[in-house]
Specification:
Bacterial Protein-export protein SecB, globular, alpha+beta
Length: about 170
């Protein structure tokens, strides 16, 4: 029995040093839907020009707690650039991160967290568009790792350009 207690204590000690990454809560932080051309837009052929603007940001809330926001603006225009609808959603998530620092933390907040939030953002956008009277809108999957790497590269290039001009 004493050996089991010591084994449990050793396992707990080993686990205490392990990195932890947990999703604590997912929530819609902000949302809006506009259809400025309704109801006339419903009388036109539905061949919209869509634009999608997707952004992420993160901030430390408290010890080991981080908020990550995934925001999207989708604009659909028809005919002579008449706006059929404009939908904006900010999907938030509260994440607990312990024992992950530096580049690993940056990757967790910039890649893993947006990947977890995206399905919820996608559903919120689709729901608002359908409730607005338009056909379902399924946002295409996003490779957040590629976006993260591109943003890091652009940031490094800007820093290099700024340091050469001084």
């Amino acid at each position: 029995m004493a050996e089991q207690d010591q084994g449990t204590t050793q396992a707990e000690q080993n686990q205490a040093g392990q990195p932890k990454f947990m999703l604590q809560r997912i929530y819609v932080k902000d949302s809006s839907f506009e259809s400025p051309s309704a109801p006339l837009v419903f009388t036109k052929e539905w061949k919209p020009k869509m634009s999608v603007d997707l952004n992420t940001q993160s901030k430390k809330i408290a010890d080991n707690n981080y908020e990550v926001e995934l925001s999207v603006t989708v604009t659909a225009k028809v005919d002579d650039d008449q706006t059929a609808f404009l939908v904006e959603v900010v999907q938030g998530g509260l994440f607990y991160v312990q024992g992950i620092e530096g580049e690993g933390l940056s990757q967790a907040l910039g890649i893993a967290c947006p990947n977890m939030l995206f399905p919820y953002l996608r559903e919120a956008v689709d729901s608002m568009v359908v409730k607005g009277g338009f056909p379902a809108l399924a946002l295409q999957p996003v490779n957040f790792e590629t976006l993260y790497r591109q943003a890091k590269k652009e940031h490094a290039e800007k820093q290099a350009a700024a340091s050469t001009t001084h």
